[in-house]
Write a structure and sequence with these properties.
Blueprint (H helix, E strand, L loop, with lengths): L15 H19 L1 H11 L1 H6 L4 H27 L10 H11 L11 H21 L3 H23 L6
Length: 169
C-alpha cells in the first residue's frame, strides 16, 4: 500500500563541536545544580566569608573551579585547533570580551553567585548572531568590538538596576 520510509536523523547537520559544546553545557548545568560542589561554587561566588562560616572549604573550591575552567579552556583550544587545522597563537584574541558579554547578557552577575549555564548559552547565541550580523553588514572588527562593549555596559547597567544596586548618591 503505502511505502514506509525510514526517517534518519543526521547528526552532521551541525558540526561536531556544537554537539560537544551542548553536551558540556548540559553536564555543567546539571553539575552546578545537583551536586554539593556546585552549591559550594555558588556559595563561594556569592560571599566567600559566609561560605567559609558555613563550612565550605573556600580554597579547595577555588582550586577545583580553576581546574575545571582550565579543562574547559583546553577543550575549547582543541576545538579551535580542529577548526583551523593549525596552531595560531593569536587565533582567539578578544574572545574574553565575547565570553564576558555572553555571561553578562545571559544574566550572570559580575559580583558573583548569580547565573546559569542556560543563560550563558543564550547569551553566547545572541553574541554569535550579533557577530554574524555585523559581518554581513560589513562592519569593521573595531566597530564590532565597540558595539559588543556597549552591549556589555548596557547589560551590566540593567543588571544593576534590576538588583537595586545602582543608587545615586
Amino acid at each position: 500500500m503505502f511505502p514506509v520510509q525510514s526517517i534518519e536523523f543526521n547528526f552532521q547537520l551541525v558540526p561536531f563541536g556544537v554537539w560537544l559544546t551542548l553536551l558540556a553545557a548540559i553536564a555543567a548545568g546539571l553539575f552546578l545544580r545537583y551536586t554539593r560542589l556546585g552549591r559550594h561554587i555558588y556559595a563561594v561566588g556569592s560571599n566567600e566569608a559566609t561560605a567559609r562560616l558555613c563550612g565550605v572549604s573556600v580554597e579547595k573550591t577555588k582550586v577545583l573551579v580553576y581546574a575545571l575552567g582550565g579543562a574547559f579552556f583546553g577543550l575549547a583550544g582543541v576545538l579551535e585547533f580542529s577548526k583551523l587545522n593549525m596552531g595560531q597563537p593569536t587565533g582567539a584574541m578578544m574572545y574574553e570580551l565575547y565570553i564576558i558579554a555572553a555571561c553578562v547578557i545571559g544574566g550572570t552577575s559580575l559580583r558573583g553567585g548569580v547565573g546559569t549555564i542556560f543563560g550563558t548559552v543564550v547569551g553566547a547565541l545572541l553574541i554569535g548572531v550579533l557577530n554574524i550580523g555585523a559581518q554581513q553588514a560589513g562592519w569593521e572588527k573595531p566597530t564590532q568590538e565597540i558595539v559588543i562593549g556597549l552591549i556589555i555596559i548596557t547589560a551590566v547597567a540593567l543588571n544593576q538596576l534590576r538588583t537595586g544596586r545602582l543608587r545615586s548618591n
